[in-house]
Amino acid sequence: MPLIPKTVIGRALALLWLLMCAGLLVFAFVQRDVHDMPVAFTWLMIGLTFPIGLPAAAIVGMLMSQLYAKFGLTYSPFMDLLPDWLAMVSLGYLQWFVVVPSIVRRLSRGERGT
């Protein structure tokens, strides 16, 4: 399974998707003082990485809350979202640009063989 799409369209879609994810990170930084920014950021990231983004956000959120409680860390809206962003972008990229194309290729090969 290649990590980078082979087709020009696939690479363009991957680049566009990554730019949208990076744009959300910029949005989070610029709007870090707005009290609803983490909610908007999380739902937009879930939209870009659905379905894998939903459990990823929940798991990272639970881990972060435990780290905050255990080590007495202070909450920072932007810094708190960085682990979410990293996990969701990584898993979302793998989902949309590695696993799904691989499944589509296997299914299309299987249909041709029958």
Automatic annotation (TrEMBL):
Membrane spanning residue stretches: 12-30, 42-65, 85-104
Domain of life the protein comes from: Bacteria
UniProt keyword list: Membrane, Transmembrane, Transmembrane helix
Protein name: Uncharacterized protein
Organism: Roseateles aquae
